Amino acid sequence: MRIKKGDLVQVISGATQARGGDRGKQGRVIAVLPERGRVLVEGVNRVTKHVKAGAAGRGSGGRETVEAPIHVSNVQLVDPETGRPTRVGVRTETTERDGRTVTTRVRVAKRSGKDIA
């Protein structure tokens, strides 16, 4: 999975915002669930959850809105240079350290060619 926690992503499929959907919204990735192929995005796919009142400091219970997971294929990373959605590529860099060859993988925005932090 090429999306990581903290990345800025944009929803690229689903209902438009005019129809009450989330397509076009941008947000930071809160969590990545690779075993399910899903991500949690801040402010996207919000659902109402009914919370039972409990003794363990949860308060009085009621309804709260929380982010639900969205499939990773429905989001795309936002290019740091252009601010538009882009595909993610991987470039390998080989360096010499202490007489050893070390290979590192760097994520790259396909749209602008810039490295993704």
UniProtKB/TrEMBL annotation:
GO terms for cellular component: ribosome. Keywords: Ribonucleoprotein, Ribosomal protein, RNA-binding, rRNA-binding. Residues 83-92 have a biased composition (Low complexity). Pfam families: ribosomal_L24. The keyword Cell membrane does not apply. Residues 80-99 are annotated as: Disordered. Residues 44-116 form the Large ribosomal subunit protein uL24 C-terminal domain. Part of the 50S ribosomal subunit. Belongs to the universal ribosomal protein uL24 family. One of the proteins that surrounds the polypeptide exit tunnel on the outside of the subunit. PANTHER family: MITOCHONDRIAL RIBOSOMAL PROTEIN L24 (PTHR12903). This is Large ribosomal subunit protein uL24. The lineage of its organism: Bacteria, Bacillati, Actinomycetota, Actinomycetes, Kineosporiales.
